Amino acid sequence: MDTDYWHSLDRKNLQxxxxxxxxxxxxxxxxxxxxxxxxxxxxxxxxxxxxxxIATKSGSRAQGQPVPEHFTRAEREELKxxxxxNEIEITVHSPANASALSGFSERGFSEDVKRANLxxxxxxxxxxxxxxxxxxxxxxxxxxxxxxxxxxGKGHEEGAEKFRSYLGEEKKAPIYFVDSRTxxxxxxxxxxxxxxxxxxxDNPDRDKIxxxxxxxxRTIADFEKEAKDKKEDPAKYIYEKFYKKDLEFKEAQAExxxxxxxKIEREHExxxxxxxxxxEQAKRDPEVAKYNIRAWVETFERETRERLTPRxxxxxxxxxxxxxxxxxxxxxxxxxxxxxxxxxxxxxRKLEVIQRKKEIDAIKPIEEYALGRTAATISEAALYGLxxxxxxxxxxxxxxxAENVFPEYYGAHPKELRNIIVESRRTFADELLNKGFxxxxxxxxxxxxxxxxxxxxIGHANIWRKYYQGSEEEFKRWLLGNVRELxxxxxxGHVHINxxxxxxxxxxxxxxxxxPIKEFVDEITKEGYTGKMVIEAGGQRQGHQHEVMTEGWxxxxxxxxxxxxxxPWTWTDIEGSYFGKTGSPNYLVGxxxxxxxxxxxxxxxLE
Length: 607
Prior knowledge:
Elements: H1 11-17, E1 24-27, H2 34-44, E2 48-52, H3 73-85, E3 89-93, E4 104-105, E5 108-109, H4 111-132, E6 135-141, H5 157-162, H6 169-172, E7 174-179, E8 185-189, E9 193-197, E10 215-219, H7 220-229, H8 234-284, H9 286-299, H10 302-308, H11 315-322, H12 324-362, E11 363-365, H13 366-392, E12 398-404, H14 414-434, H15 441-451, E13 452-457, H16 458-462, H17 472-488, E14 492-497, H18 517-526, E15 533-535, H19 547-555, E16 560-562, H20 571-577, E17 587-589
Parallel strand pairs: 1-2, 1-15, 2-3, 3-6, 6-12, 12-13, 13-14, 14-15
Antiparallel strand pairs: 4-5, 7-8, 7-11, 9-10, 16-17
Helix pairs in contact: 2-3, 3-4, 4-13, 7-8, 8-9, 8-12, 11-12, 13-14, 14-15, 17-18, 19-20
């Protein structure tokens, strides 16, 4: 054994080598059999493996899309014992194809979608309890679509300044609201113009001569800025302004229809009285009654007269001449029907106004609405995990770990991820107290912090790069600064490492893209992070999947032990001379002092 090997107990060398492989995990391929993947990873030398799933519902094991429910009790026990014998720690990734925990879908926010995604998470929780004995269960947090420039939460101005999909996005992109009664999403383009009175709806300016209202056109983006300046809820403010004119028009229509119905009602009352009087006269003298009808009709206002008397030469006029009382009876009945129709119309218009007002009252900002639903789902999942812990007597808690995904969805921005974790913990703490799982707020707080955390994916975070409007150095400062805050607040509980070039989530070997992996790891470890870091595979060439692990170890400067007297070894040497070869390996890795006894460098026992 060479005398200058690296060892974590050597303080000087620890500073040079960085992380031990004890902290580094590798993800199993989600399209392969977990047992085969676990064996392969053990043989390759990793001490931690994340078992991942892609498919949802029943999947298709035969087509390489296994789901947690495919694994019988015996198979789960086999995975558990294999890990235990080889001292491997397992974590679990819930199906990546499951959509938002908020229930967001193309049809709006759906209870069915929310429940289906929670069920997928529960399946993964049970699998983690049986196979991993607890630990992190990562779940994607892509809670609703929104423009990248909006990212960062309410009042976060940096997002508008630093992120943009296209020039002028902040004035053209749709702004979305939610009808809290139905979950329906309503969108209005920020560039859409709305006619509003100069001086406002409440006190409009009028032309001094014509007294006509003076109108101007303003965009939805103008209203949004105005709402923020007034510190009012932009969603309600914009929605109310946008529908103000239409609402007032409907109110005016309803009032006009009601007045018209009252007028017809008065006319009907007059006709009934007139008809009754004439009937009484006709009993005494029919001819006098006929004469009086004609005489009285001539005294009516023109509008009333035209309604009561038909045009000369028509069949109705002949009836009027021969039997005016019978004719007036028909008119009275028709007017009575008109009264009913008029009031029904007026009621319908009033109902439209009431419904529109309720619609405005029910409108909520999409973030506020979705965040509450997401927190409720994560809280329910955490409570389910807690029950699994107690029923199966697990030694470690099941941790629901929400992961930042893609910039186009809420939850990808570090501040949004923080909001999800904080709100979920608050909701979970309330549930713990209400259901008697915690005796006091302090105990509930400790339990929620232990069971709800974030999985921070540095590769996903790097995709923000394509929308960033600053320099490379500014982007790194932005990203690492946000990571630092998350770690300081105790938000991060699990880490995913993968690399890309800032455009797509391609999962190239760590260190081969432009993701600031080393800086990220340095930052969180400096702030006290001691959890696992999962290196995720995905973009490797066929037959080179092993490189994701060794390249990751190289980026982390994990310690290498070497046998023989050759110039200093690198991880590239290992990749080129161990994997795919038939000769005995002469490398050992990990945070331990090796003996001189020959063994596989992965420490895997020979079978």
